[in-house]
Amino acid sequence: MLSIKRWHVAAAIAVGALFIAAIESPKPISDEPIPQPLVAFDSAWNTGSYANYRKPPTHNRETHIVYVQPGQNLTSLLTNEGLSAQQVVLLALTAQPLIDLGRLQIGAPLEISFNDNDQPRVRLAKEYGEIIDAIYENGAWNVTKQTVPLRAETHEAAVTISSSLYEDAVAEDVPVTIINSAMMALSHFVDFQRQLQPGDIFEAQYARSEVVRDKALFSHLQNPLKLSYLRFTNGGEDYRMYRFDGTFYFEDGRVAQSFLLKTPLNGARLTSHYGNRYHPVLGYNRQHKGIDFSAPVGTPIMAAGRGTIKHASRKGSFGNAVIIEHAQGYETLYAHLDRFNEDIDVGDYVSQGDIIGYLGNTGLSAGRHLHYEVYRNGRTINPVDIKVPSDRRLSGVELARFKRYLAQLKSQASELAGLAP
Ligand SMILES: [Zn+2]
């Protein structure tokens, strides 16, 4: 994309003057000329060109890079480099549609240069791979946005877990962004707080993009990273996932997402496990047929999987409860809700992740929490143990495309198990 914005000299100077007055007052603006060295004065006078005399530049006119220092703003930075305050104000105004120069990141590099007529040019990064180029000429800035081509470099990592996936992968120099993406994708199947075992294997292939030129202008920005493949072995399972069109799939084209979410709400803490426990309200031991999550009242509760709403009203000690009927004989129950999603009715079809209600403290409950139960053929099971993958899969043309993509991925030399031909 190329966009250009020009300001006319007269208008710009008027606006610029106002701007300077506003930010510089009460300090008076001095119109007095800066005293010049006599030699320069005399030589200019003697050649009869005094009217055209300009102060010889004392600033660095070569192309060079300066970095935004703490406490520095655009004006202090650029006037330091030989631009006039007016030029800086005009630059900020002209560039405004493309970049907010009033919000420069500390450490951000700016490339500054001056041409033979001492007209400044400023270049800086907007996002990774995007440069804002500002050239001053005849009293106006010409500001454009340019795209720098990227070159992607493929990286592979194989990590044997000894303490935690995060720590062990960081120790192997896997970028944090990649670890987070991988953990997000794996969270459908692996409970990292409880199910990790020493000896589990994590593999990842990812691409790191880098600009083909002007690297110095992007030194403060993170290189774009893209996870293309990941593998995790855990508890006898071997998950191999391939990203295709932004979604992870297993090798056979099934969506690499679980049939039922392990955690049907975000930002929650598991506060009570499945199994025998002392009941806080009843005061005696009894089987806890679900798991409890603690989160603030009003936290949205999601359908753990797609299915049909079987119940959405008060249900005895469960308080406000929702029951969803899923495929393969599964049902999920969500209890003690503060309220329901008003759009939800019995018989409605819901997708995985749809909001069905909000966390609360209704029914026989000692405090705000979600009580979550999973049934298989009428009997409760431990939600933590569910490893049933989603039944959604690619088909037809999409599956054929995916297979071609996989074949290409596996044709490249790789040390990773899931990328071997
Ligand atoms: Zn409970």
From TrEMBL:
Protein name per UniProt: Peptidase M23-like protein
A Pfam family of this chain: Peptidase_M23
Domain M23ase beta-sheet core: residue ranges: 287-383
InterPro entries: Cell_wall_metabolism_enzyme (IPR050570), Dup_hybrid_motif (IPR011055), M23ase_b-sheet_dom (IPR016047)
The keyword DNA damage is annotated on this UniProt entry: no
Cofactor section: Zn(2+)
Keywords: Hydrolase, Metal-binding, Metalloprotease, Protease, Zinc
Keyword Methyltransferase among record annotations: no
GO biological process: proteolysis
Organism: Idiomarina aquatica
Gene Ontology molecular-function annotations: metal ion binding; metalloendopeptidase activity
